Amino acid sequence: MCQFFHVSTEKLSKEFLIRLDRQVYVTPTSYLEMINTFKDLLAKKREEILNAKTRYERGLGQLDETQKQVVVMQETLKSLQPALISATQDVEKMLLEVDKEREEVAEFEKVVKQDEAAAEVSVANSNF
């Protein structure tokens, strides 16, 4: 490939000389420089590809780890589901009991207020 570029450049430099009367030199040094430039570019691209591959593999590893965590969490959720249902039922029972007790207290409060009013009337009558 580099040889093709070098030979093509030599041909184009001759054509450039004929058409524009300008000399362009294609030397072995320029050929070696082109090879070194190609090697540098190849090394950079290989490094970029290796970095991309490493990032991709890390991402896949992270996805795999996350999938394992999701499975564990689902199993935990399934095992805790009966306890949640039981706790919900207990809370509902307690709420019913609290409502019932609240009604009883409200009735008792009415009786106490009536007794209090009667006591106040009795005190008022006894003071006169």
Protein described:
This protein is mostly helical and 128 residues long. It is 93% helix and 0% strand. The protein contains 2 helices and no strands. The protein has helices at residues 2-20, 28-127. It is rod-shaped. The chain starts with a helix and ends with a helix. The mean pLDDT is 90.
Separate helix tally = 2
Number of strands: 0
Query: Sheet with the most strands?
Result: none
- The shape is rod-shaped
Pfam family, one: AAA_8
Organism: Ceratina calcarata
Keywords: Coiled coil
Protein name: Dynein heavy chain 7, axonemal-like
Q: Secondary-structure blueprint of this entry?
A:
Elements: H1 2-20, H2 28-127
The gist of it:
The chain has 128 residues and is mostly helical. The protein has helices spanning 2-20, 28-127. The chain is built from two helices and no strands.
Features:
about 95% helix; mainly alpha; about 130 residues; rod-shaped
